[in-house]
Amino acid sequence: MSTLPPAELRERVLAAARREPIAPSREGARGRVAVVLRGFVVAGAIAAGAAIHGTVAKTPRPLGCTLSLELLWLSLAVAATSAGVDRGRSMLGRPRRWRIAVATLTPAALLAAWLPVAFAWPQTLADTAGLRAHLICIAVTMALAAGPLIAFARLRRGSDPVSPRLTGAALGAAAGAWGDAAHVFICGYTAPTHIAVGHILPVVLLTLVGVVIGDRVVALHAQGTLPSRDAGEGRT
Q: Which of 9, 76, 102, 176 could be bridged to 206 by S-S, CB 3.0 to 4.6 A?
């Protein structure tokens, strides 16, 4: 038997949650910072290990090319996190259209941001990345994104009673953008096929993983409670 409240009552509760701003909380802020730092420490450790052990063979690439791509992808990762992960002033998170944009446009935005770098350094398009390099980069990108994705899922745990799958998809896309940003300093291949398969495809896959996480972790189920002011802010 369903434990959902009557539709009218449910809509009133959700409307009130949307209107009610989140009060600042030092304890909650410290919790958020701690959770995110742990997630990014994991990603940093993986990136350092991969770089030290030469997981992906590098080809000559100008430093300016590497730094430019890093700046562009890092900016997109920050923007995706702000629009898709941060709840802003609402208990229910950012507007639905923002999360849709993050989930659907992040892979395309990463690819589009790479284009000016490719035109500026056309010599980097002639590398010889093969299937092995593609598969390794898919695995490495997803591994680098795992820490941020876990941190984002903990921040938004049990916080969305309306569209948790969409929220989860946005979390996955944002984490994928961070994985790509961290991967720039590890992988030296920049041919179009490799960028699309080794770096953009993992973001799409992580978005799909985020849908599952949204359903399992982010969703506020009927038997639970409404999200509190500190829900999803790092408390364990």
A: 176
